Amino acid sequence: MYEFLLRMGDNTLVLGHRVSEWCGHSPVLEEDIALANISLDLIGQTRLWLGLAGEVEGQGRDADALAYRRDAWDFRNLLIVERPNRDYGHTLMRQFLFDLWHHERLADICLSEDDRVLGIAAKCVKEASYHLERSTDLIVRLGGGTAESHSRMQTAVEALWPYVGEMFTDDALDIEMDKAGIAPLPSNQRPRFDEALNITLSRASLTRPAGDFAQKGGRSGVHTEDLGHMLATMQFLPRAYPDARW
Amino acid sequence: MVSEAQIWAWLDEVPDPEIPVLSLVDLGVIRGVEIGEEVVIKVTPTYSGCPATSVINLDITEKLRANGVKNLRLEPQIYPPWSTDWIKREAHEKLRAYGIAPPVSGTALCPRCASANTEMLSKFGSTPCKSHHRCKDCLEPFDAFKCL
User: Fold this and answer.
1) Are B50 and A124 inside 8 Å of each other by CB?
2) Is B1's pLDDT higher than 90?
3) Residue A176 domain-assigned?
4) Distance between CA A190 and CA A201 in Å, rounded?
5) What is the arithmetic mean of pLDDT over A2-20?
6) What CA–CA distance (Å, rounded) separates A220 from A171?
7) The predicted structure's pLDDT at residue B31
8) Residue A145 DSSP one-character state
């Protein structure tokens, strides 16, 4: 259960931080505000997941301790969320692929037999559906925009494609969570994800990449080097000044 | 011994930190008041990352302490999740008068001229709970409460 909660909370934490890196740098003011707000939602969701993870673990660690005092190999997020921002199209494509998965995943977890898990999922799924509406709109607009925006979106989906498969791979922990009635198997979502993805890509005049090669490892603590660089920034202050207060 | 109704009345005087025309009771974030050996206030967050959440807790504590409530405990309650349906109907008029279009599914009405000829400029506005719009009749920009 603890590991499952880390997986949920680390996804939103890592992506929330990545998205916040745009704050003050986005191409237009509205986008800057939108990304900062999405980041805020994701960090808020992280507090709920990691807060419960700390309670379940029972070692006296709260959400902050889990966020700021673990090293890369202790993180259980999907690799896609730690991918660097690159250009704005790449950031939005990453967001869209994540939102599409996240929304379905949370909807599935709303069936949890654990009241605490269900409560968090029911809270987060509403925000995730708003994020998905927005990222779907933007993918369609940029995919069907200028030749330049179209080519950047196509490049982005191809670069991120190897990180999609990991979202739907069941491992021993997933099977255990499914049997315990805590969360259904991630693989259940794949047909729904594919259907929605194909519709949006076709509205955006983008081509779905071929092949199903999937990079894996994030959910068991094997990460790309980008996560370490990100944590070095994110964790610097609380590590340099432990227990600092504003 | 203070009554439950009195506590609700005090809480109805605490303004939301970001939209001060609404009280915490209008906003629908107070889920329950229990009076026993201690007074327990059940509070639900609006958006999970809303920075006003901790200020709301502080304001509740200050208000009740100032009124002599000593044994006080705030209990977070996230389920059932808050949505804009929890905002009191009467509060919609307060929002409109303040210049914020109340939450509706569909096109937001301009809070100034009541026109339905409006467009959304951005799904996110000045706070996590609002989106940004423009009225195509009176040409004024305005915020609308996001319908969640």
Assistant:
1) no
2) no
3) yes
4) 16
5) 98
6) 10
7) 96
8) S
Instruction: Quote the mean pLDDT of chain B.
Output: 93
Residue A179's pLDDT band (cuts 50, 70, 90): very high
- A residues 104-123 closer than 8 Å to B (CB): 115, 118-120, 122-123
At A35, which CATH number?
Answer: 1.20.1260.10
Is A223 inside any structural domain?
yes
Residue A101, pLDDT score? 98
User: How sure is the predictor about B125, in pLDDT bands with cuts at 50, 70 and 90?
Assistant: confident
Helical axes A29-57 vs A115-143, angle rounded to 10° = 160
Whether A245 is covered by a domain: the verdict is no
* CATH fold for the domain made of B4-82: GMP Synthetase; Chain A, domain 3 (3.30.300)
Q: Which residues of B touch A126 (CB under 8 A)?
A: 81, 83, 148
* pTM of the predicted structure, to 2 decimals: 0.94
pLDDT digit string (tens) for B52-84?
888 999 999 999 999 999 999 999 999 999 999
Angle between helices A29-57 and A2-20 (to 10 degrees): 160
Number of domains, chain A: 1
Q: For A97-147, what is each residue's pLDDT tens digit?
A: 999 999 999 999 999 999 999 999 999 999 999 999 999 999 999 999 999
The boundaries of the domain holding residue A135 are 2-206+215-240
| Cβ neighbours of B48 in A, within 8 Å | 41, 44-45, 47-48, 123-124, 127
* Mutation for B interface: A22, A37, A43, A131, most B CBs within 10 A: A37
Q: Do B47 and A43 touch (CB under 8 A)?
A: no
Residue B15's DSSP bridge partners are B23
Domain segments of chain B: what residues? Answer: 4-82, 87-145
Cis ω for the linkage preceding B15 (within 30 of 0)? no
Q: Are A123 and B81 a contacting pair at CB < 8 A?
A: yes
Q: Are A61 and A54 in contact (CB under 8 A)?
A: yes
